[in-house]
C-alpha cells in the first residue's frame, strides 16, 4: 500500500471511484438476481495465534497489520508498506458466556489499547461494530459504550465493563438511564457520567473534553504516561476548535486543530483531514512535522463521580439511619462529629452528625438543602440525609486523605510548587461555580477543603453558606467568624459577598505555600483586626514566587471591588506556568 493511496484515502479522493464501483455492483445484482444481499455484514474469522487483537470501532474503514509469527493471510508481504492503525483499538480477550437459551457463546471484550500499535499485530474484526450499528438503526435504539468499569450499588442498577455496549431502553432522567447489556442481555440503570454514545467523539480514549491546559499538562506528565502520549481537548479560547496536546519527553507541546470551511479539520493547511479520527490515525503512523508520532492516548487519572449515592436515592434525599454503618471518627466540629461510614455496607461515605442541643435541627437541614442543589466536580457532593432519629446524619462523598490542613501538615508536607498551584486552581474552580450561583461560602479555609487521590481537592463545609439573590449577606448579631480568614468589611460591618470569599482564598493560598502554618503567626485575633485596619498584609514567604504573592495581595485589596473574581483566579492559576498565552506550536513542514 503506497503513501499516496493512504493520503487519498484520508482526503476522501478515493470516494468517487468507490461510488462508481458500488453503482456498477448494484446494477449487476439487479440484473442477475442470483444472490440476495445479506441482512447483516459477515464477520471474518481469524486465527489469533501469536497476536493481540484490535477491534476497530469505526465502520467503513478497516486496516490490518501483522508482526513476525502472526498467521494472517491478508497481511501485506511488502515490508516497506505502512501498517495503518485504527483510530481506536482494543486489547481483547475471549470468554465463554451463556446465551439466553443457556448455550455457550464466545464474546469479545476488553479495554482500550494504544493508538499506533505497540509491537503486537492489529487485526480488525470486520462486521462486529457494523452489526451493532445496523441493529441500532433498525430498531431505533441508541447504543452507549462504557468509558470506565461500573459496579452496581443496588438491584435496580447494572454493572458493566469499560468498552461494553449498552442499548438505551429509557432515558429516565438527566443522570441515570435504563439500558440493556448487548453482551449479557441484563437490564438496569446506569450513570451517564461513565458512558458515551457509540461513534461519538466522547467515546474516543484520546478525547478529554473541556480540560484546561494546566490540567492537561499535569495528566500527560504523570508517570503513567510516556513520550508520545497525547490527548485532544476543546479549545479554551476558540469556538469549534480543538487542541492536540502531546508529551515530548519531559514537556508538553500543544497544536491547534482548526476546522475547514467545507468540513474537516487540519493542523496545517497542507494536510487536511475529513475528521478528527482521520487526523489522529494519520499522525499515529508518522509525525509529519509534529514533535513526535502519536503513541497512545493519555491515561485518565480520575474516575468520574457517581451522580448521587445511587439510582434509588437520586431523587430521595431522606434515607433510614439503619442503612448507615459508622466505621471510624474522622474529627469533630462546631455542630457535631464527622465519621467515615458505609452505606448499605458497601459504599464508602462521610457522615456528619448533629450534636444534640448545639444547633436547631432545621438549621442543620438547611445545610443539606443548600448542598443538594450544588453539583460541581470540585465541590463535595451531598448524597442523602437522615433526620428521623438522633443524631441527625448528613451523608456526603468521602475524601480519603481528610482535610487539606491536616494533609499539608502531614502526608502532603513539602508539596512541590506545581502541586501547590494545582490545589489552588481546583479550589478556585469550585469557588467560581459558587460565584456563578450567587452562593457565599463565608468560611473558606484549608480546614474546609478535603483531599482525595492524586492531590485532588474539593471545597466542603457549607454550614454557613447562604443563597444570596442580592449578592450580599448580612450576618446576624453575635455571629462568630474565623477572624484570620475573614475580610475587613465582613469583620467591621457583618456584610459578606463573593469578594469577601476572595479575601479568604488569598489566606488559603498562604496556608498552602507555608505548609499549613497558621496565618498571622504571633498575632491574636484582636491584633489581626487592628493591623488590618492600618493596612498590614502578611509578608511574602521565602518559598513563595513573586507571581503568586502578588496574586494574594490582589485578593487582599482594601476595596472589595478591586479584588479579582474567582473566574480570573481560576484561569490565572491554570495558566500559571504558561510563558505565553499563544504558546502553541506550528507543524514543521
Automatic annotation (TrEMBL):
EC number(s) stated in the UniProt entry for this protein: 2.7.10.2
Domain annotation SH2: ranges: 206-298
Keywords: ATP-binding, Kinase, Nucleotide-binding, Phosphoprotein, SH2 domain, SH3 domain, Transferase, Tyrosine-protein kinase
Chain intervals with Low complexity compositional bias: 62-81
Ranges annotated as biased composition (Basic and acidic residues): 10-31
SMART domains for the chain: SH2, SH3, TyrKc
The keyword ATP-binding appears for this protein: yes
Positions that bind ATP: 352
Domain SH3: 139-200
Pfam families (UniProt xref): PK_Tyr_Ser-Thr, SH2, SH3_1
Segments of skewed composition (Basic residues): 32-47
Ranges for domain Protein kinase: 324-573
Reaction equations catalysed: L-tyrosyl-[protein] + ATP = O-phospho-L-tyrosyl-[protein] + ADP + H(+)
PROSITE patterns: PROTEIN_KINASE_ATP, PROTEIN_KINASE_DOM, PROTEIN_KINASE_TYR, SH2, SH3
Record-stated family: Belongs to the protein kinase superfamily. Tyr protein kinase family.
The protein's name: Tyrosine-protein kinase
Native source species: Petrolisthes cinctipes (Flat porcelain crab)
Amino acid at each position: 500500500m503506497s503513501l499516496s493511496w493512504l493520503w487519498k484515502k484520508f482526503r476522501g479522493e478515493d470516494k468517487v471511484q468507490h461510488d462508481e464501483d458500488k453503482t456498477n455492483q448494484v446494477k449487476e445484482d439487479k440484473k442477475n438476481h442470483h444472490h440476495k444481499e445479506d441482512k447483516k455484514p459477515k464477520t471474518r474469522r481469524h486465527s489469533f495465534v501469536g497476536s493481540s487483537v484490535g477491534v476497530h470501532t469505526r465502520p467503513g474503514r478497516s486496516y490490518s497489520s501483522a508482526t513476525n509469527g502472526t498467521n494472517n493471510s491478508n497481511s501485506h508481504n511488502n515490508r516497506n508498506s505502512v501498517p495503518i492503525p485504527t483510530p481506536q483499538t482494543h486489547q481483547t480477550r475471549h470468554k465463554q458466556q451463556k446465551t439466553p437459551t443457556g448455550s455457550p457463546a464466545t464474546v469479545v471484550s476488553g479495554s482500550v489499547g494504544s493508538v499506533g500499535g505497540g509491537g503486537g499485530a492489529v487485526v480488525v474484526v470486520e462486521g462486529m461494530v457494523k452489526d451493532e450499528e445496523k441493529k441500532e438503526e433498525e430498531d431505533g435504539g441508541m447504543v452507549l459504550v462504557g468509558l470506565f468499569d461500573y459496579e452496581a450499588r443496588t438491584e435496580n442498577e447494572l454493572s458493566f465493563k469499560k468498552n461494553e455496549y449498552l442499548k438505551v431502553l429509557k432515558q429516565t432522567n438527566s443522570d441515570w438511564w435504563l439500558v440493556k447489556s448487548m453482551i449479557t442481555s441484563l437490564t438496569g440503570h446506569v450513570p451517564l457520567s461513565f458512558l458515551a454514545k457509540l461513534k461519538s467523539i466522547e467515546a474516543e480514549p484520546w478525547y478529554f473534553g473541556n480540560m484546561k491546559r494546566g490540567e492537561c499538562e499535569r495528566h500527560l506528565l504523570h508517570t503513567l504516561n510516556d513520550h508520545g502520549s497525547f490527548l485532544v481537548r476543546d479549545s479554551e479560547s476558540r469556538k469549534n476548535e480543538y487542541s492536540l496536546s502531546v508529551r515530548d519527553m519531559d514537556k508538553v507541546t500543544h497544536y491547534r486543530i482548526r476546522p475547514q470551511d467545507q468540513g474537516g479539520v487540519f493542523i496545517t493547511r497542507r494536510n487536511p483531514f475529513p475528521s478528527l479520527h482521520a487526523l489522529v490515525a494519520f499522525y499515529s503512523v508518522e509525525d509529519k512535522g509534529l514533535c513526535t508520532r502519536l503513541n497512545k492516548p493519555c491515561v485518565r487519572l480520575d474516575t468520574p463521580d457517581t451522580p448521587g449515592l445511587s439510582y434509588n436515592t437520586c431523587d430521595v434525599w431522606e434515607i433510614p439511619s439503619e442503612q448507615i454503618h459508622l466505621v471510624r471518627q474522622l474529627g469533630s466540629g462546631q455542630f457535631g462529629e464527622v465519621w467515615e461510614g458505609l452505606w448499605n455496607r458497601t459504599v464508602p461515605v462521610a457522615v456528619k452528625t448533629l450534636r444534640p442541643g448545639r444547633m436547631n435541627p432545621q438549621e442543620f437541614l438547611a445545610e443539606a438543602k443548600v448542598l443538594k442543589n450544588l453539583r460541581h466536580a470540585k465541590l463535595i457532593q451531598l448524597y442523602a440525609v437522615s433526620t428521623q432519629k438522633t443524631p441527625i446524619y448528613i451523608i456526603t462523598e468521602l475524601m480519603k486523605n481528610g482535610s487539606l490542613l491536616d494533609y499539608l501538615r502531614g502526608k502532603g508536607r513539602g508539596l512541590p510548587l506545581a502541586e501547590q498551584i494545582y490545589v489552588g486552581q481546583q479550589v478556585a474552580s469550585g469557588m467560581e461555580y459558587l460565584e456563578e450561583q450567587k452562593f457565599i461560602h463565608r468560611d473558606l479555609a484549608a480546614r474546609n477543603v478535603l483531599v482525595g487521590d492524586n492531590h485532588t481537592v474539593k471545597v466542603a463545609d457549607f454550614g454557613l453558606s447562604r443563597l444570596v439573590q442580592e449578592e450580599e449577606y448580612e450576618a446576624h448579631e453575635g455571629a462568630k467568624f474565623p477572624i484570620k480568614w475573614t475580610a475587613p468589611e465582613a469583620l467591621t460591618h457583618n456584610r459578606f459577598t463573593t469578594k469577601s470569599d476572595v479575601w479568604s482564598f488569598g489566606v488559603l493560598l498562604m496556608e498552602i505555600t507555608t505548609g499549613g502554618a497558621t496565618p498571622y503567626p504571633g498575632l491574636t485575633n484582636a491584633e489581626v483586626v487592628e493591623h488590618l485596619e492600618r493596612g498590614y498584609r502578611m509578608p511574602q514567604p521565602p518559598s513563595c514566587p513573586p507571581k503568586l504573592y502578588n496574586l494574594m495581595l490582589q485578593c487582599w485589596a482594601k476595596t472589595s471591588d478591586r479584588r479579582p473574581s474567582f473566574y480570573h483566579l481560576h484561569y490565572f492559576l491554570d495558566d500559571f506556568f504558561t510563558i505565553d498565552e499563544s504558546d502553541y506550536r506550528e507543524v514543521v513542514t
